[in-house]
Write a structure and sequence with these properties.
The complex is a heterodimer.
Chain A: H1 5-14, H2 21-41, E1 62-63, H3 73-78, E2 83-84, E3 87-91
Antiparallel strand pairs in A: 2-3
Helix pairs in contact in A: 1-2
Chain B: E1 4-15, E2 52-53, H1 54-66, E3 74-75, E4 78-81, E5 91-94, E6 101-102, E7 105-110, E8 113-126, E9 130-133, E10 139-143, E11 150-156, E12 160-161, H2 163-179, E13 192-202, E14 212-217, H3 220-239, E15 247-252, E16 257-263, E17 273-274, E18 281-282, H4 285-293, H5 299-310, H6 314-320, H7 324-337, H8 342-360, H9 372-383, H10 389-400, H11 406-413, H12 421-434, H13 436-443, H14 449-460, H15 467-479
Parallel strand pairs in B: 14-15
Antiparallel strand pairs in B: 1-11, 1-12, 1-13, 3-18, 4-5, 4-17, 6-8, 7-8, 8-11, 9-10, 13-14, 15-16
Helix pairs in contact in B: 2-3, 5-6, 7-8, 7-9, 9-10, 12-14, 12-15, 13-14, 14-15
Classes of the chains: A mainly alpha, B alpha+beta.
Chain lengths: 98, 480
C-alpha cells in the first residue's frame, strides 16, 4: 500500500492542517516510507495471535461514580480568546462544504 | 401499482444516569450554569487523561444482560475523529470494532402479535457539548457541560417495517432502559434520542433499497412523522423514475419534512483507531453474575407471570409492562382492590380509562394524576354496585381533574347508583304511563321498543339507575 499526492492532500484537509504543495511531496515520501515498514511487518505470520488493542498488557482500571470536580470555569475562561455569559465564543459555525 | 415496504433501523442514544461523566469526575446534572460542570478533561486541556466510570460500564452490562446479548470479556474504546467546536478534543471517544454489548434482541408488542427485533450492538461513548447560535452576533457560544456525558448507543438491525413498528420498538427500548434504571428517559432534555435509517423496497423484495439517515429525533411523534415523510419522499422519487441518494437528513418539525444535511459523497471520514489513552475494558463472569443478581424482574418475565397468574391477555400484559412505573402501579392497584377477578378489572380500567386519558393529553405515565388508592376505590365502588360502569367513568373524569376522594365525588354529584326497587318501580311506572303507544307496540311484538323505554327510564333516573336491575324490572312489568 502507498499513498498518492491526492491522498496526502485529503489527509491534511481532514486534519485541518495547511500543507504547501512542496511539503505534500515530502510528506508523501515519508508516509510511504512508514507504510513500507508496515508492509515488511505484515510478512510475519500472525495466525492465531489475538490483535493487540494497546501496547501495555494491562487492563483499564475503573473509577467509582463520584463527583469530585468543582466549578473552575472562571480559571479556564481566563485564557480563552473570547467569552460571554459563561460561554466560550467561537467564530460562527457554518456547515463546512468540503 | 407497486406496493412498497418501509424498512427502518434505529440508532438510539440513551444518556446513562450516572452522577459523574464517563471519563471525568464532573457532574452530569442537567440545567447547570454554562460550563460550570466542565473540568480540565471535558474541555480537553493538554496533558489530561480519561479515567473510565465504573457505573457507565455496569449500566451497559445491565442493558446487555436484559436483551440477552453477548458481553465479550474485552471491549475497546476508539477515537472517532472530526472537528467541531463543541468537541474540544477533536475526537469523540467511542467504540468501533469491539463494543461492550454485541447482538441481543428486543420483543415488541404489535397488534398483529409479538415481534423479535435483533440488535446489532450497543456501545459506550461520550456526548459532545452544545453549540448555541444566535445569542452573540457573528459567533457561536459553546457550553461544554454536556461534553463527556455517558451515552449508550443502541443499534438495531434493519428489521422494523414501517413507522408504527419503529415507534413501538423505540418505546420498548425507552421502557427497558428506564425500567433498568440506567437512563432517566427524559426526551425533552435529550436523554433519549433516535436516528432512523429509512429505505423502501417493493413488497416481497429481498434486497434493501438505498437508505437515508434522519438525525436527532427527540420525540416518538417526530420519529413517526419523519419516517412517514421520508418513506413517502423516497416512494415518489422512485415512482417518478428517480433514484434515492444515500445521505444524512434532518427532520424539520415545523414544516413536517426532512431535508438534506450532508450527502454520502462528502460524508465524514472518521478515521477510527483504538484510543491509546484507554486500555481494554475487561468484564469477567463474576462481575456479570453480580450485576445479573441485582437486576429487577424484567418486563418480559413480569408479562409472562401476569398472563399466567392473573389471566391477562398477552397484549394487555405487554402494554402494562411497557413502563416500570406503570407496571408497579398496576401491581399495587391489584393488591389494593383485592379479591378474585381484580386483576382483569384493574387492567380494563387502566387500559380503557387511564391510558386513554394520558394519551389524550400526551402525558407520560409518570404524570398520571390519579393515585392508586383513588382508582382502587373507584373500582371497588363499581364492584359493590354503588356505581354503574358508566357512572364510574364520570367519577374517573372527576378523579382525573383531581376533584378529591371517590366517595366524596359520588355524594357531591349525586352519582350513587339507584338499586332500590321501590324507587326504580316509581320511575318505570311514570315511563309506562307517558308512552302508552310504545308500550302497546312492544306488546304487539315490536321488540326494539324495549330499548326506547329503557332509555327513557334511564334518563328519568338521571342515569343513576342500576341498568341490569332496571332492565329486569321493565321486562317484568311489560309482561304483566
Amino acid at each position: 500500500m502507498s499513498l498518492d499526492f491526492q491522498d496526502v492532500r485529503r489527509i491534511a484537509k481532514l486534519a485541518r492542517v495547511a500543507v504547501s504543495e512542496q511539503d505534500t511531496h515530502m510528506y508523501q515520501h515519508r508516509i510511504n516510507g512508514v507504510l513500507a515498514l508496515v508492509a515488511q511487518m505484515q510478512a510475519i505470520d500472525t495466525q492465531g495471535v489475538a490483535p493487540m488493542a494497546h501496547a501495555l498488557d494491562v487492563v483499564q482500571s475503573l473509577r467509582e461514580d463520584v463527583v469530585t470536580e468543582t466549578d473552575l470555569h472562571k480559571k479556564f475562561q481566563a485564557i480563552a480568546p473570547q467569552v460571554a455569559g459563561d460561554l466560550y465564543l467561537v467564530p460562527q459555525v457554518i456547515e463546512h462544504d468540503d | 401499482m407497486t406496493t412498497w415496504e418501509i424498512v427502518v433501523g434505529l440508532e438510539i442514544h440513551a444518556q446513562l444516569a450516572t452522577r459523574s461523566k464517563i471519563f471525568s469526575a464532573s457532574s452530569t446534572a442537567f440545567g447547570a450554569a454554562p460550563n460550570s460542570q466542565a473540568s480540565a478533561v471535558d474541555i480537553a486541556l493538554p496533558g489530561v487523561l480519561p479515567v473510565l466510570n465504573k457505573a457507565a460500564v455496569e449500566y451497559a452490562i445491565r442493558f446487555g444482560l436484559a436483551v440477552g446479548a453477548d458481553i465479550p470479556p474485552r471491549s475497546v474504546f476508539a477515537r472517532k475523529n472530526y472537528f467541531y467546536p463543541d468537541l474540544p478534543k477533536g475526537y469523540q471517544i467511542s467504540q468501533m470494532d469491539d463494543p461492550i454489548v454485541q447482538g441481543g434482541r428486543v420483543t415488541i408488542v404489535t397488534e398483529q402479535g409479538d415481534k423479535q427485533v435483533r440488535l446489532t450492538r450497543a456501545h459506550l461513548e461520550e456526548d459532545a457539548g452544545k453549540s448555541l447560535h444566535g445569542d452573540y452576533p457573528g459567533t457561536t457560544g459553546i457550553d461544554l457541560n454536556r461534553a463527556g456525558t455517558p451515552l449508550l448507543e443502541i443499534v438495531s438491525e434493519p428489521e422494523l417495517r414501517g413507522a408504527a413498528e419503529a415507534v413501538a420498538y423505540a418505546r420498548t427500548v425507552h421502557g427497558l432502559v428506564t425500567w433498568l434504571g440506567i437512563c432517566d428517559g427524559n426526551m425533552q432534555e435529550g436523554s433519549f434520542r433516535c436516528d432512523a435509517n429509512v429505505s423502501v423496497r417493493p413488497m416481497g423484495s429481498e434486497t434493501f433499497g438505498t437508505r437515508c439517515e434522519i438525525k436527532n429525533l427527540n420525540s416518538f411523534r417526530f420519529l413517526e412523522r419523519a419516517i412517514l415523510f421520508e418513506a413517502q419522499r423516497q416512494i415518489e422519487l422512485l415512482e417518478d423514475g428517480g433514484r434515492v441518494r444515500q445521505e444524512t437528513r434532518l427532520y424539520d418539525a415545523d414544516r413536517d419534512e426532512t431535508r438534506t444535511m450532508r450527502s454520502k459523497e462528502d460524508a465524514f471520514d472518521y478515521r477510527y483507531f483504538p484510543d491509546p489513552d484507554l486500555l481494554p475494558v475487561v468484564v469477567d463472569d463474576a462481575w456479570k453474575a453480580k450485576i445479573a443478581a441485582s437486576m429487577p424482574e424484567l418486563p418480559q418475565a413480569m408479562r409472562a407471570r401476569w398472563v399466567e397468574q392473573y389471566g391477562l391477555s398477552a397484549y394487555d400484559a405487554g402494554i402494562l409492562t411497557s413502563n416500570r412505573v406503570m407496571a408497579e402501579y398496576f401491581e399495587a392497584l391489584v393488591q389494593v382492590v383485592g379479591g378474585t377477578g381484580a386483576a382483569k378489572l384493574c387492567a380494563n380500567w387502566m387500559m380503557g380509562e387511564l391510558l386513554a386519558a394520558l394519551n389524550r393529553y400526551e402525558l407520560p405515565f409518570s404524570a398520571n394524576p390519579v393515585t392508586v388508592d383513588r382508582l382502587a376505590q373507584l373500582i371497588q365502588r363499581v364492584q359493590d354496585g354503588t356505581l354503574s360502569g358508566k357512572l364510574g367513568k364520570t367519577v374517573f373524569d372527576a378523579l382525573w381533574q383531581n376533584e378529591g376522594e371517590v366517595d366524596a365525588i359520588i355524594e357531591a354529584r349525586g352519582l350513587r347508583q339507584v338499586s332500590d326497587s321501590t324507587a326504580l318501580a316509581v320511575v318505570l311506572d311514570e315511563v309506562l304511563a307517558a308512552f302508552p303507544t310504545q308500550v302497546a307496540d312492544y306488546r304487539a311484538g315490536k321488540e326494539k321498543m324495549l330499548g326506547f323505554l329503557m332509555g327513557q327510564a334511564m334518563k328519568l333516573s338521571g342515569g343513576r339507575a342500576n341498568p341490569q336491575q332496571l332492565n329486569d324490572m321493565l321486562l317484568k312489568k311489560l309482561q304483566s
